[in-house]
Amino acid sequence: MKDFYTSTQWKNKRAAILSRDGYMCQRCKRYGRQREATTVHHIKHYDEYPELALDNDNLISLCEACHNFFHPEKAKKSNKSRGNHRYF
Ligand SMILES: [Zn+2]
Ligand SMILES: [Zn+2]
User: How many domains does the chain have?
Assistant: First the structure.
């Protein structure tokens, strides 16, 4: 399901998760920092667990820096234009 991240289903889910988390980064919060969340991350990556793609318990709001922390692979491939992770 290649276009998952562009689907209305995902956009709605993403908005719901951001709202649930108060639009704050949940990892920063754990460290006592207040930062606006800009992305919603799959705790168990979508590639491996597509069945959890819309599972609330598998989704967390993060700021960009924290999201990059969970995706060290993205830094290495940053100049690749393909990849369906951009909506995070
Ligand atoms: Zn953060
Ligand atoms: Zn992610």
Answer: 1
Q: Kindly identify the ligand whose nearest atom is closest to the C-alpha of 58.
A: 2
Owning domain of residue 19:
4-74
Burial of 58 by CB count in 10 Å (0-12 exposed, 13-18 middle, 19+ buried)?
Answer: middle
Domain contains 27: yes
Residue for token pair 């993205």: 74
> Quick check: is 46 in a domain?
yes
Using one digit for the tens of pLDDT, what is the confidence trace for 20-66?
Answer: 999 999 999 999 999 999 999 999 999 899 999 999 999 999 999 99
pTM: 0.80
| Number of the ligand closest to the Cα of 73 | 2
Query: What is the pLDDT, as a whole number, of residue 2?
Result: 65
* Ion ligand 2 residue ranges (Cβ < 5 Å): 41, 88
> Tell me, what amino acid is at 45?
H
Residue 30 lies in a domain: yes
